[in-house]
Amino acid sequence: MSQQVEQFFENLWNDYIKLTPSAAKVHEVLGQGRDIINDHVAFRTFNLAPVRLETLAKHFEAMGYVAAGDYTFEAKRLQAKHFEHADPRLPKIFISELLVEEFSPELQAIVKQLVEQIDPAAVQQPEFLYSGTHWQISSNDYERLLEESEYAAWMAAFGFRANHFTVNVNELPDYASLEQVNETLKNAGFRLNSSGGEIKGSPAVYLEQSSTMADHMPVRFSDMEKVIPSCFYEFAKRYEVAPNKLYTGFVAASADKIFESTDARAAAAQNSDA
Ligand code: OOG
Ligand code: NI
């Protein structure tokens, strides 16, 4: 891997851990001082020029990544693609985008006004992928977005950066199952996303996934500061589709639940169920 690509992922990671202090603790608990290999990194965006999924993906294509799967999420009104690299040390990339035109005129107006503030030239730089927000938003507008789309609200508050990194559980020497990883995390005090069960997927779909609930961080809105869910860590175990060939795709039904790892209301509902 080129030094430039290595630096890109290092910068991406450094931005991510600033908003996700628990990520360092995940590495400590699961890695015990050894390196952790990441299965994938996920990004979010809006399907509006100049920040459409396809435009952001160009940065990864320039690094040698190729498109390898398409996904749709009807209820959340999202679509996504994943990208793979021939170098097995590089994480897969999962990029989703909000289908803005499918929401109310109010949501569309708020989101368009945010995206209009982005300098289109900035999007052409790879650093755009960890540049955060390019706008000011009021806490009222954030709450208004939250009513319709938790994803839109997250984007408005955090902008362009890694939404999560994902531990490659197959490469963790001390863990035979995702269940063991989950138990270790819970014993260390992490809260897992239990929407659709703590483990999403199964060997039958060649992929099992779990995730922490996002950390909470203070965000400065134009009128006030608010503590809201930021980013989370995911865990993925892949199964063979053929001898010595692991599944490399994603599973839409599971991904649909992973999205909820930034949803404080989903978390509150889980707590009251318990
Ligand atoms: C992406 C959720 C889906 C996966 O691995 O299936 C996902 C997101 O929350 O932005 O990461
Ligand atoms: Ni993911």
TrEMBL record:
Broad EC category: oxidoreductase
Keywords: Aminotransferase, Dioxygenase, Iron, Oxidoreductase, Transferase
Gene Ontology terms, MF aspect: dioxygenase activity; transaminase activity
Entry cofactors: Fe(2+)
Documented EC number(s): 1.13.11.93
Cross-referenced CDD domains: VOC_like
Pfam families: HGLS
InterPro entries: HGLS
Family: Belongs to the 2-oxoadipate dioxygenase/decarboxylase family.
PANTHER family (UniProt xref): 2-OXOADIPATE DIOXYGENASE_DECARBOXYLASE, CHLOROPLASTIC, DUF1338 DOMAIN-CONTAINING PROTEIN
Protein name per Swiss-Prot or TrEMBL: 2-oxoadipate dioxygenase/decarboxylase
Species per Swiss-Prot/TrEMBL record: Pseudidiomarina atlantica
Lineage start: Bacteria, Pseudomonadati, Pseudomonadota, Gammaproteobacteria, Alteromonadales
